[in-house]
Amino acid sequence: MVAIIHCDEEEAEFLRWRRSRPEDLERGWETTRSAAVWKGTHIALIVTEDKPQNPAIAYVGRVSVGRQHGTLERDLTVTQVHALEWPVPLDELAQALPSRVRALAYKAEPLPKRSGEILLDVLTGLRPELTLVLESLQQRKPPIVVRSAAARLLAFERDAIGVALQMADFDRSLLEEAQLPETLDGPLGSFLNYMPVDGAHEDELINHDAARFLDWMGEDTNHRGWRVYAKGKQRLFIGNVNRKPAEETLGVDLIYYHVQRQSFVLVQYKEITPDGNDWSYYPSTDRDLDSQLQRMHAVDEACRKSIKKPNDYRLSETPCWLKLCRANGYIPRTSELILGMYLPHDFFRQLRGEDIGWFGYKTVPRYLDNTAFTQLVCDGWIGSAGTGDDLVREQIDASQAWGRDLIFAVLLGESPFKGERIKQRLVRFF
Question: With 50 as the cut, is the pLDDT of residue 266 above it?
Answer without folding.
Answer: yes
